[in-house]
Design brief:
The structure holds two protein chains of two kinds.
Chain A: H1 3-13, H2 16-38, H3 44-60, H4 62-75, E1 79-83, H5 86-99, E2 104-107, H6 111-116, H7 118-124, E3 128-131, H8 134-142, H9 158-169, H10 177-194, E4 197-200, E5 204-206, E6 211-216, H11 220-226, E7 230-236, E8 240-241, H12 244-258, E9 266-270, E10 284-290, H13 294-298, H14 313-317, H15 319-324, H16 341-352, H17 354-357, H18 369-373, H19 380-388, H20 396-400, H21 405-418, H22 421-436, E11 444-445, E12 459-460, H23 467-472, H24 509-519, E13 523-527, H25 533-550, E14 555-558, H26 568-574, E15 578-580, E16 589-592, E17 596-598, E18 603-607, E19 622-628, E20 632-633, H27 636-639, H28 643-647, E21 650-654, E22 659-660, E23 668-669, E24 676-682
Parallel strand pairs in A: 1-10, 2-3, 2-4, 4-7, 5-8, 7-10, 13-24, 14-15, 14-16, 16-19, 17-20, 19-24
Antiparallel strand pairs in A: 5-6, 6-9, 9-21, 11-12, 17-18, 18-21, 22-23
Chain B: E1 4-6, H1 10-14, H2 17-29, E2 34-35, H3 45-50, H4 53-68, E3 74-76, H5 79-92, H6 97-108, E4 110-112, H7 113-120, E5 133-136, H8 140-145, H9 150-157, E6 163-165, H10 179-183, H11 185-202, E7 206-209, H12 212-224, E8 231-233, H13 234-238
Parallel strand pairs in B: 1-2, 1-3, 3-4, 5-6, 5-7, 7-8
Helix pairs in contact in B: 4-6, 5-6, 7-9, 11-12
Classes of the chains: A alpha/beta, B alpha/beta.
Chain lengths: ~675, ~240
């Protein structure tokens, strides 16, 4: 047993801050997940079976899908790079940085970059890399690795974050989460605006369209893929889905499993770099496809681990993770595994070596809570057992290097005994007799602490009359009763997953959308059309004007006039509002139209284009969106069929104001994107 | 009815003969005829969970051979051992066609005790009477590997005089996990502490479960803390009758 792993575990158990943080995580995520699943349109077990099928088929035919995907991505104008291992991937990024003469890089969360050690490599060449996800930003300031794949600062209490900000940023000491969020917003705003390159991960690549999909809540993912002139996306080669329909399925499951949300605040769909006439967006996009052991993993007994969509549900459900946290999962040198928890205990030995991380899989009671929570139904206990049995090669020799000599010896003796029933029975008698001679309690014995068992548990004494001897001496059985046919057989196993009834026809899409948006802290106003279109626009203008006056805002960043209801921009200008149609970070409000809206999740869909400044829905504190009621659809799948989606360089799905729960799982609005979202809906 | 082949499991055979007796009495009370193949020992789960597959295979082969010469359903009063035979054996012999088929034959006729009563025999009321408050701890393999959750609850709810109390977080692991409990005693203990806290919070006289492993862990922890080891195997409750 590697001592340093055990030491990390003991330290984690003895750290009251960590214990309380981990409890909060486990409790909150459990409740959120249950609620999230309850809001699915179909029963979650059916959806996850479908999702498993999609991912399984994708991994089985990965080469074919990769070829298709790369062709599409390249023909869309994104430069594709293939990296066989970590050092190649790092070199590719360094070369791009050098070519762009980059000094400052803004990064959104990507676990692949952790896996390849990107930050360290960049920093040592003198490039400044700044993590912009709030949790990642905090741990970067503290010089720590992420403690969780989606909640990197899960191990910290607010006081620790306040102290870190105070020490590293020189701001006054505070325990107020909203204040800390504002500090991060201000600090990172400058990074986004001045970065030479934005680096992001990729949640899903769509093989038949070449679309890169990223989900974020804070808005930093949108920032780094929209504002800097160059964008580099890092992606593990396994993160593919065949089609947009499959993507819609994954997007129904991923956020629900991760945080319980029906959808993340932002879903970015990126097809290409800025098109010639586009108002904004990066001029150059690169995709770095990272293999780093995935091909070997795919042909190994652990290949099912590649189905993982990195939602973190398995970590949140794991009772061991709950006790020890992410930083305890270390290699024999004490280096934390990039991927902790149950999935990490499979992926890390699978990708980075059995000898380095094989021992992690032993830290599991095999309770299966991770499998139960998994949205793509990965059989994690089965895979953990395969790691224990030797991992990727499944060679017994590889297994034994991780098993203590005493366990090996004991198990070998026991295995021999088990195949010799008479000696087995004799040993039972001896054990029963010997322990009965021990002093003290007739039923219980204390065993020494070094056995592992004895420090917190007693052991029952073996019976002097094992079951088999009772059976052998048993008199003729007294048959008591005949099988009673009249026993009512209850109908069991009836699963009562709250598959939500389809929204009734009478409930209009508008009401549904409004309710969902409000639940996400967005504001909704319906402007009726009873007086005709001109009167409706006038009413719209008045309402927007009064909103702006109420906030003391006199200039707005806006889409081009022809992308908004005719007369609206002129009305605002006539009433003293300065309308700017380019990115200007000093402006407090942004005015946009909307391509479509999704009622089920309260989502606005915006697509990039020459007249449609993406920054208008991203940089200002207040986002005002004008929505035509006829553009509301019920679900994401319908919206994914719109032609405009594939014809634009980038599409953003926005569901409420920017949010984070990276500090103590406490919700805080407006971390990077808008703090307030107003939707004015024009009825037909 | 075909003869029922009882696989008592090594834990119950060695540590809890009274549970084995209770299983036999309940099965006979509902009209079953029970056989106990004398050469049975251990299913091999300990070696399988330790990662020692060659040893686990030897133990599994032994168990397969013991039951191969019998007919009728094989009933196992332990969720994790039943799961081992039903799913673990198929994993163990994947790639060994002859043993795989034999393993599959055994897997298909193997049932956990409560699953057998309720799903196979269609009996939820075994005519038991037990005048105590009882809370149910879901054993992990039973719940998540075999999907058995409602069956024990149905059996308990049919027991006369039994006051069923919901155990908070009843689905959470007690921290046993076999070899895990000795390789990672601190984590295992922390999980056990949560379980004990919940047991005490619910205030039931008795905690019941369908797995000898969980019972050993929970009672072993309670006893060391100077508390009453109040975990009973479900068969011990179902065995009790009106005096």
């Amino acid at each position: 047993m590697p001592d340093i792993f055990q030491t990390q575990i003991k330290n984690a158990l003895a750290d009251p801050n960590l214990q309380s943080a981990l409890d909060t995580n486990a409790e909150n995520r459990l409740h959120a997940r249950v609620q999230g699943y309850a809001s699915l349109r179909e029963e979650w077990l059916i959806l996850r079976e479908r999702a498993h099928g999609v991912r399984d088929e994708t991994i089985a035919n990965l080469d074919q899908y990769l070829t298709q995907f790369i062709d599409k991505v390249e023909s869309n104008g994104i430069i594709v790079h293939k990296a066989e291992d970590a050092s190649e991937a790092v070199q590719i990024v360094l070369d791009i940085a050098q070519h762009s003469d980059a000094q400052l890089i803004a990064k959104s969360k990507t676990m692949v970059s952790e896996e390849i050690g990107l930050n360290h490599a960049m920093t040592s060449t003198g490039i400044r890399v700044v993590e912009t996800d709030l949790g990642e930003y905090i741990i970067q300031l503290r010089n720590e690795p992420p403690a969780h794949i989606i909640t990197p600062a899960v191990h910290l209490k607010r006081e620790q974050v306040g102290q870190t900000f105070h020490e590293k940023l020189g701001v006054p000491l505070t325990n107020d989460i909203a204040t800390m969020t504002s500090v991060a917003r201000q600090e990172l705003r400058q990074i986004f605006l001045n970065a030479d390159i934005g680096i992001s991960g990729v949640n899903f690549g769509v093989a038949d369209t070449g679309t890169l999909c990223m989900v974020t809540n804070e808005g930093n993912g949108r920032m780094v893929t929209t504002i800097p002139p160059v964008h580099i996306a890092l992606m593990g080669i396994e993160r593919l889905v065949p089609s947009m329909d499959d993507l819609a399925l994954m997007l129904a499951l991923l956020p629900r499993s991760a945080t319980g949300q029906k959808i993340t605040v932002y879903v970015n769909l990126i097809n290409s770099p800025r098109q010639t006439e586009d108002a904004d967006g990066p001029f150059e996009r690169h995709l770095v496809l990272v293999n780093n052991g995935r091909t070997a993993l795919r042909t190994s007994p652990l290949s099912e681990a590649l189905l993982c969509i990195r939602c973190g549900a398995g970590l949140n459900a794991c009772p061991v993770f709950r006790e020890i946290g992410g930083h305890s999962y270390v290699n024999p040198n004490g280096k934390p595994s990039t991927y902790p928890g149950p999935i990490g205990s499979i992926v890390s030995p699978g990708l980075f070596g059995q000898s380095e991380f094989g021992q992690l899989a032993r830290a599991s009671s095999l309770c299966g809570a991770c499998k139960e929570a998994c949205p793509v139904d990965i059989d994690l206990p089965k895979l953990l057992l395969r790691v224990r049995a030797g991992g990727i090669s499944m060679q017994p020799g590889r297994a034994e290097s991780k098993i203590s000599l005493s366990v090996q010896l004991g198990m070998k003796i026991y295995a021999w005994l088990v195949t010799k029933p008479k000696i087995f029975a004799f040993s039972q008698q001896i054990a029963g007799l010997a322990t009965s001679l021990l002093p003290g309690d007739p039923h219980w014995m204390q065993v020494p602490g070094f056995t592992g068992w004895g420090r917190s548990r007693d052991l029952p004494k073996p019976s002097r009359h094992p079951f088999r001897s009772w059976w052998a001496d048993r008199p003729i059985k007294e048959m008591e009763v005949e099988l009673s046919d009249n026993v009512e057989h209850e109908v069991l196993r009836e699963k009562r997953l709250n598959s939500q009834a389809e929204k009734s026809d009478t409930k209009s899409l508008i009401d549904w959308f409004a309710a969902e948006l409000s639940a996400l802290d967005g504001r909704f106003e319906l402007i009726e059309s009873d007086g005709g279109r001109d009167a409706q626009i006038l009413k719209l203008g008045e309402q927007i004007l009064s909103l702006l006056h109420g906030k003391d805002i006199s200039s707005i960043m806006s889409w081009q006039t022809d992308q908004l209801p005719s007369g609206l921009v002129d009305y605002l200008k006539d009433h003293g509002i300065q309308v700017v149609q380019k990115a200007d970070p000093s402006i407090k409000a942004g005015l946009t139209g909307v391509l479509a809206a999704i009622a089920e999740t309260g989502t606005l869909v915006l697509h990039s284009g020459p007249e449609r400044l993406q920054a208008a829905s991203l940089l200002p504190e207040v986002h005002i969106a004008v929505l035509e009621a006829r553009a509301i659809f019920s679900g994401m799948d319908q919206v994914f069929n719109l032609d405009e989606l594939m014809d634009s360089a980038a599409v953003t799905l926005i569901s409420g104001p920017s949010r984070t729960a990276d500090i103590e799982m406490t919700l805080s609005l407006g971390v990077h994107g808008p703090r307030e979202v107003y939707v004015f809906c024009l009825s037909d | 009815m075909e003869k029922i082949q009882l696989f008592a499991t090594c834990i119950i055979d060695t540590l809890y003969p009274q549970v084995g007796m209770a299983v036999v009495r309940v099965l006979e009370r509902v009209g079953g005829e029970v056989a106990f193949p004398q050469r049975q020992t251990c299913c091999g789960q300990p070696a399988f969970n330790a990662g020692m597959r060659p040893q686990a295979q030897k133990m599994a082969e032994h168990t397969i051979k013991v039951f191969e010469v019998t007919t009728g359903p094989v009933v196992v009063p332990s969720g994790s051992c039943a799961a081992m035979i039903r799913h673990g054996y198929l994993e163990l012999f994947d790639g060994d066609p002859s043993w795989f088929q034999q393993a599959k034959n055994l897997a298909e006729r193997t049932f956990e005790f409560t699953e057998f009563l309720v799903d196979y025999l269609g009996v939820a009321d075994v005519g038991a009477c037990f005048r105590s408050s009882v809370a149910y701890h879901s054993s992990c393999h039973l719940l998540r590997d075999l999907g058995v959750s409602e069956q024990p609850r149905a059996l308990l709810s049919a027991v006369e005089g039994l006051d069923f109390i919901e155990l908070p977080y009843s689905d959470d692991c007690c921290g046993f996990g076999g070899i895990f409990s000795v390789e990672f005693p601190e984590v295992s203990t922390a999980m056990l502490e949560r379980k004990i806290t919940n047991i005490e919070m619910c205030g039931a006289d008795v905690i019941t479960s369908c797995d000898g492993g969980c019972i050993t862990h929970i009672n072993g922890g309670l006893n060391q803390r100077g508390k009453t080891p109040l975990a009973l195997h479900i068969a011990e409750i179902l065995e009790k009758k009106q005096k």
